[in-house]
Amino acid sequence: MYPPIRGTAAGVPFTALPPPGDGPAPLIVTWHMLDAPRSDAAFAAALPMDGLPAWRVHLGMPMCGARMVDGRMDAAERLMRKDVLMSYLYPFVQQAADEFPAALASVRAQLPVGDGPIGVLGGSLGGAVALRILADTTIPVFAGAIVNAAIRMRSVVGLFPGDYPYDAESGKAVDSLDFLAKAGAIAGRAPLLVVSGELDHASLRADALELADALGERAGLLSIPGLAHPLADEPGLDPAPQLPLAREVDAGLTTWFGRHLAG
After folding, report:
1. DSSP-assigned beta bridge partners for residue 143
2. Which of 64, 110, 124, 262 could form a disulfide with 33 if both were Cys (CB 3.0 to 4.6 A apart)?
3. What is the maximum alpha-carbon separation in the chain?
4. Which pLDDT does position 81 carry in this prediction?
5. d(CA 67, CA 104)
């Protein structure tokens, strides 16, 4: 396989994996987890989707990977402790989605990916970004996939200690990232593969099953026995050998996107 290409697209760091032949091909864009693997390079190593006739461009999430402050996750963790929703989860998804159109244009200017519909993939909080692209934009998408995704942000907030003190502003913010409520819009945009580890957090697992059911024939559901939430070992910042359970996820994603690329 060709080596990864590291670059920046409108200020967003990326790791690009070329297709076989290293020439013009469709584009699949991904957003990584904030659990391991928590950088674009590490996510590319965990889920490379090798052999697909497509460029896989893994974008960096805010304050992760090359965008860490002083090369550490400490600054992001301070935001999480300050206000897990309004300083951390919501603005990270908002920024990643808002910066995507310019990043996409830059990727298209740098790589031979054409201007056709794209594939989108997100893991955990990156899944909320992929779902937002599907639900809230008109960017053409031929297929999407999510892995252990943040489908309802209230479920994610509920994983943190204590009762979150919702007010009018935070209630509006968290409800804007409820993609069960937007299932109709998602179904009208593109087929979606919902990948869910059977040992993922119970609330995230329940949301995944509910979303797949709500999407009906527009969804595929891939349950992975033995898979908890992360896809890589800690610290999850650098590329690492692919874990066996991540290999199962990777195989499912490769089959899914390959089917829709062929179609």
Report:
1. 119
2. 124
3. 53
4. 86
5. 18
Task: Please report the sign of the dihedral spanned by the C-alpha atoms of residue 234, residue 46, residue 193, residue 222.
Answer: negative
pTM for the model: 0.96
With cut-offs at 50, 70 and 90, classify the pLDDT of residue 1: low
- SS3 of 123, please? strand
Residue 212 has which token pair?
Answer: 């797949």
**Cα 200 to Cα 47, 215, 219, distances in angstroms:** 18, 21, 19
Q: How far apart are CA 24 and CA 218, in angstroms?
A: 28
Token reading at 181: 């409520």
Residues 7 and 25: their CA atoms lie apart, in Å, by: 18
Contact 122, 146 (CB under 8 A): yes
Instruction: Report domain extents, the chain.
Output: 5-262
Ordered strands of the 192-197 beta sheet: 5-9, 12-17, 55-59, 27-31, 118-123, 141-147, 192-197, 219-224
